[in-house]
Amino acid sequence: MSDRLPHEKGFHVSWDQIHRDSRALAWRLDGKGPDNGAWRAVVAITRGGMAPAMIVSRELDIRTVDTISVKSYDNQSQADAKVLKAPNAEMMGDGTGILIVDDLVDTGKTLELVRRMYPQAHFATVYAKPQGEPMVDTFITGVSQDTWIFFPWDMAMQYVKPYRGSD
Ligand SMILES: O=P(O)(O)OC[C@H]1O[C@H](OP(=O)(O)OP(=O)(O)O)[C@H](O)[C@@H]1O
Ligand SMILES: Nc1nc2[nH]cnc2c(=O)[nH]1
Ligand SMILES: [Mg+2]
Predict the structure, then answer these.
(1) Is residue 148 a known part of a binding site?
(2) What is the ipTM for the molecules in this complex?
């Protein structure tokens, strides 16, 4: 995070919120697959896409779920991003009927790489920043580019000093 552009704002997402927003994403995708509205499989972009993908696959009753792991190298070009683990090639084909899910799109670098591999897949994220929007087919909530999104799996409850008082 420190080597990215400064983020003016923070958007803190609770478990309840990511659950609601992921459900909303599922409902928006329902019946939109190419085979009479059906999707063949859900593929999560690890790690952030796993919780939303689980919720989407549960809502849409899709039992075939796979993962793709992309490691991007900060301060280097897109060419340096590497796929550490690919989903089943036979299942994926060119991506037709496959729902690829991530928690968010920021610069669009991650989705750009995955899109090149599976051009016919449908790309869905829960949150989207403007720079990455062209890379995503369906998303629920837009946030500004200078906002950092904090997910519940990266946070913990902690003591906060009273507004008025010493401690
Ligand atoms: O649009 P981009 O600029 O490529 O950024 C978006 C990606 O960055 C985050 O993942 P990260 O690579 O930090 O790994 P993680 O999912 O394992 O936390 C997020 O979960 C997206 O996958
Ligand atoms: N948690 C988190 N990861 C990111 N990766 C790229 N942008 C973000 C963001 O806003 N929040
Ligand atoms: Mg990620």
Answers:
(1) yes
(2) 0.99
